[in-house]
Amino acid sequence: MIQENLQKILANIPEGVTLLAVSKTKPESDILEAYNYGIRNFGENKVQEMVGKYENLPKDIKWHLIGHLQTNKVKYMASFVSLIHSVDSLNLLETINKEAVKVNRVIPCLLQFHIASEETKFGLSEDEAYALLESDSYKAMKNVEICGVMGMATNTENMDVVRSEFKHLKQIFDNLHEKYFVASTTFKTISMGMSHDYQIAIEEGSTIVRIGSSIFGERNYNV
Ligand SMILES: *Cc1c(COP(=O)(O)O)cnc(C)c1O
Known about the structure:
The chain is an alpha/beta fold. Helix content is 41%, strand content 18%.
């Protein structure tokens, strides 16, 4: 089932767009099935769960942290996390930098933006991102690398709303690129699109789609 799902999804994803298989709540056997099909990028939203899976599964898996991240959890994954999608405060970025220093790494990060109309979704506003990027604290950081942006569209059937939110995120990416990252060779990632909206996200410029239920089936509880 998982491999059939992957085959269908991969056929819809153009070259240059990465499929991130969101394996949160799913067993390691499901991850191995996707791994055996060639998938190497997996996304988790709970640090503890990701650490357990990291320890048990093949070491060439790239682990992405996609959920809201508490500062006190950063240390458990600093040595191996491949990309943190959910940086939503200067304080969190400071902690990531501090933990990255301890393990002698530069940790790739995305700034998460609040693009949905729901109050509950985490993320920065564009102004907050400017303040972060202009802060002395950020400018002094040597062990984090901001590689782009991430966002979640409103959970709605109205695909016009979803499309306009993705357009907004792409615009934010372009603004940041022009203002702060024009000389950067690594600021090029737009993480947007999930199971029900990834095709629209790709049309609007996504470079990483985060797909869970369409690969692994519905999750038992809503996380
Ligand atoms: C769970 C989750 C996804 C995957 O959602 P599906 O609808 O199952 O594809 C993508 N992004 C984030 C941030 C998530 O928490």
